[in-house]
Amino acid sequence: MPPRTCALCATNRAMLKRPKTGQQICRDCFFYVFETEVHNTITQSNLFKPGDRVAIGASGGKDSTVLAYVMKVLNERYEYGLDLFLLSIDEGITGYRDDSLETVKRNQQQYSMPLKILSYDELYGWTMDAIVSQVGKKNNCTFCGVFRRQALDRGAAMLGVDHIVTGHNADDIAETVLMNIMRGDIARLGRCTCICTQGEDTIKRSKPFKYAYEKEIVMYAYFKKLDYFSTECIYSPDAYRGHARVFLKDLEAARPSAIIDIIHSGEAFEIRDDVKATQKVQQTCKRCGYMSSNDLCKACTLLEGLERGMGNSGITDRARKKLDAEGPAPDNLRTIPFYHLPSSAAAAIAVETATS
Amino acid sequence: MSLSLKVEFSGGLELLFSNQRSHKLSVPALVPKTYGETSSETKPADITFLIHHLRDNLLKERVELFMENGTVRPGILVLVNDTDWELEGEGEYPLKEGDEIVFISTLHGG
């Protein structure tokens, strides 16, 4: 087969077929279009303003490694004027997270960005290893997901940043759209395609890779020889997401635009007013001050169950009733430190303690 | 006649292959038209042959994470001398002496 030339520069040999467009392009044009599309996503959504302090949620995996690299490139090329930080959460999973954190530490050197690591142990008094030894491998992903979300916000508050960016890519978002449809989770379906979530009163969270295909992220990492970590979590993976993922990959194999099409469908859903009316209003957790749709936030509920030796009380109604039957939470219960939103003064103190 | 190849696994796929990323191997230049059949009909060794050959000779565990329906599982990228195999005829690409074939899983956590 004769080598094909790049559809964009018409000079170099094509090395990649873009899943989104079917275009055949060369390595240099691929770097250019990939970076430019992320830049366009950022500017069209007005994600940042000059002087913003932005934390990159970094796991050491492919998406966040490529995100850190591309954010650095774009910040310099287009003079965004951002202060970039790496923020990692150490879930306390021996043989998995400790290894991937080594990758993040190398990224810190390679990209010269300050790194903050916040551990579950430090914040909740529980590592995932300890949680799994109490609750087993069945529901541990619920703990990990709820704890990580809150830990990222709290780590961001310690860094005094305005904004967290995460490496969620187009495949992840399409997968989440499917999952929310299959679970009938209308509230999440409505917001899962938003590029930027959380309102004025909390730290912004956004996904600059919202329209970037996983295939292109992996090809970018491969061509740029970026250093990333790719081991599966040693605890059982989220089975439901696994099914959605396999289904999506099968769809993509048949028609590559399926991923972007599902995102567009998700964006186009309008939630009827009478459905919206049944959704809970956001408030703050009475125990730890974090945002919540109940009196207690999900992390406090889960932590109370762990501390009282009934980890599954945050998961099933039956276990919850058993916990309630034992009476109210004891006064000496371990709780999560109260969450204060970063004002600039509080933030400066937090950064000092974080680096000490 | 045989072809020597360099095969690489990454993105977590190496875990299925003795946790070793890079492998040197040689495959026959001509192989049966249908994998595993000893008929007189042959074809030049292609990537489809290589995938089966890797499954039967190098793969150590969990075949379902590598192959599905006679090819690699969706979500595994294949590169032929650093070029996307989708530009090279995918499974029908005829292997050449010294080719470097890379398999990358995209399915592991981000």
UniProtKB/TrEMBL annotation, chain A:
Subcellular localization: Cytoplasm
Ranges for domain Cytoplasmic tRNA 2-thiolation protein 1 C-terminal:
283-310
Domain tRNA(Ile)-lysidine/2-thiocytidine synthase N-terminal residue range list: 54-232
- Give the Gene Ontology MF terms in alphabetical order: ATP binding; nucleotidyltransferase activity; tRNA binding
Q: Tell me a GO cellular component.
A: mitochondrion
Keyword Cell inner membrane carried by entry: no
Q: In which pathway does it act?
A: tRNA modification; 5-methoxycarbonylmethyl-2-thiouridine-tRNA biosynthesis
- UniProt main location, coarse: cytoplasm
Q: Which UniProt keywords apply?
A: ATP-binding, Cytoplasm, Nucleotide-binding, RNA-binding, Transferase, tRNA processing, tRNA-binding
**What residues does ATP bind to?**
57-59, 63, 89, 167, 172
Q: What EC number(s) are associated with this protein in UniProt? A: 2.7.7.-
Q: What class of enzyme is it?
A: transferase
Please list the coiled coil stretches. Answer: none
Q: This protein's superkingdom?
A: Eukaryota
Q: Which biological processes are named by the entry's GO terms?
A: protein urmylation; tRNA wobble position uridine thiolation
Q: Which InterPro entries match?
A: CTU1-like_ATP-bd (IPR056369), CTU1_C (IPR032442), Ncs6/Tuc1/Ctu1 (IPR000541), Rossmann-like_a/b/a_fold (IPR014729), TilS/TtcA_N (IPR011063), tRNA_thiolation_TtcA_Ctu1 (IPR035107)
Q: Which NCBIfam families match?
A: TIGR00269 family protein
Instruction: Give the protein family.
Output: Belongs to the TtcA family. CTU1/NCS6/ATPBD3 subfamily.
Instruction: Please give the function described in this protein's UniProt entry.
Output: Plays a central role in 2-thiolation of mcm(5)S(2)U at tRNA wobble positions of tRNA(Lys), tRNA(Glu) and tRNA(Gln). Directly binds tRNAs and probably acts by catalyzing adenylation of tRNAs, an intermediate required for 2-thiolation. It is unclear whether it acts as a sulfurtransferase that transfers sulfur from thiocarboxylated URM1 onto the uridine of tRNAs at wobble position. Prior mcm(5) tRNA modification by the elongator complex is required for 2-thiolation. May also be involved in protein urmylation.
The identity of this protein, by name, is Cytoplasmic tRNA 2-thiolation protein 1
- The organism is Mycena rosella
TrEMBL record, chain B:
Q: Does the keyword tRNA processing apply?
A: yes
Keywords in alphabetical order, please: Cytoplasm, Isopeptide bond, tRNA processing, Ubl conjugation pathway
Family annotation (InterPro entries): Beta-grasp_dom_sf (IPR012675), Mopterin_synth/thiamin_S_b (IPR016155), Urm1 (IPR015221)
Q: Name one Pfam family in it.
A: Urm1
Q: Where in the cell is it found?
A: Cytoplasm
The annotated pathway is: tRNA modification; 5-methoxycarbonylmethyl-2-thiouridine-tRNA biosynthesis
A Gene Ontology cellular-component term? cytosol
**GO BP terms in the entry:** protein urmylation; tRNA thio-modification; tRNA wobble uridine modification
| Chain positions with 1-thioglycine modification | 110
Q: What Gene3D superfamilies does the record point to?
A: 3.10.20.30
Quote the PTM field: C-terminal thiocarboxylation occurs in 2 steps, it is first acyl-adenylated (-COAMP) via the hesA/moeB/thiF part of UBA4, then thiocarboxylated (-COSH) via the rhodanese domain of UBA4.
* Membrane-crossing segments per the record: none
Q: Where is this cross-link: Glycyl lysine isopeptide (Gly-Lys) (interchain with K-? in acceptor proteins)?
A: 110
* Task of the protein: Acts as a sulfur carrier required for 2-thiolation of mcm(5)S(2)U at tRNA wobble positions of cytosolic tRNA(Lys), tRNA(Glu) and tRNA(Gln). Serves as sulfur donor in tRNA 2-thiolation reaction by being thiocarboxylated (-COSH) at its C-terminus by the MOCS3 homolog UBA4. The sulfur is then transferred to tRNA to form 2-thiolation of mcm(5)S(2)U. Prior mcm(5) tRNA modification by the elongator complex is required for 2-thiolation. Also acts as a ubiquitin-like protein (UBL) that is covalently conjugated via an isopeptide bond to lysine residues of target proteins such as AHP1.
Q: Which family does it belong to?
A: Belongs to the URM1 family.
The protein's name is Ubiquitin-related modifier 1
Task: Name the species this protein comes from.
Answer: Mycena rosella (Pink bonnet)
Taxonomic lineage is:
Eukaryota, Fungi, Dikarya, Basidiomycota, Agaricomycotina
Q: Which gene encodes it?
A: URM1
